[in-house]
Amino acid sequence: MRHYVENSKLEYGMNFACGGTGILNTFSNGPNISTQIDSLQKLVQQNVFTKHDLNSSLALFNAGGNDYATYTRRNGTLRDVAAFTSSLVNQLSSDVKRIEKLGVSKIAVALLMPMGCLPELSVMTSYQTCISAPNIVSKNHNQMLVQSLAKLNHELGKSIITSLDLYASFLSTLDSMQKRRKEHVRMMNPLEPCVKIVDEEEEARKYIMCKKPELSFFWDNVHPSQNGWHEVYQHLKSSLQLIVQQN
Length: 247
Known about the structure:
This is GDSL esterase/lipase. 47% of the residues lie in helices and 9% in strands. By secondary structure, it is mostly helical. The chain is globular, with a radius of gyration of 19 Å.
């Protein structure tokens, strides 16, 4: 896409993410994170971005959910997932190290959201509560990732890698929206998706959409809405500001 935009706009950064992809290969045909980093490396070699650009930039990693979705689809369950979590965190740590070696001076790594709160799972409780088992998987992933990032910072001798706690931010947002809903009963249940499938036929799926999408937290069964991400951002804003301000 960079060939279709003005070079002046590249100074604001570039998004290498691709929908459906992950840290490892998923069922998507898109590039995994390692390949996305290859793309950045090529741009540096082509002098589209210079070492100076990278030194004054912030890299954001947000991945993992699609990897667990792929694991579940392949295995039918999240049982015996510990070894997979270990391999996933190890690969992500290697990817983060590559970004640092390219010269990026600030790296933010998002922790995994509470997967048990996704509507595709909370539907089992009629959207009343999150499912505990997938949330435990998220917690274990995050704990291992935080430890791995701390080890990387120690090896580097400086704290350039910071974690963004999506897990706590999601839970805090959902909790505050639930409390507001008790005061205003017409507010939408934040665990419920705005868009629902009402006809499962593959060739002609039919959907219904909630009356006020701007008040929803989840857009569909797995993705937060624009409002949902905005609410989460409010909880992350102070952390992001500290990362940007750090030397």
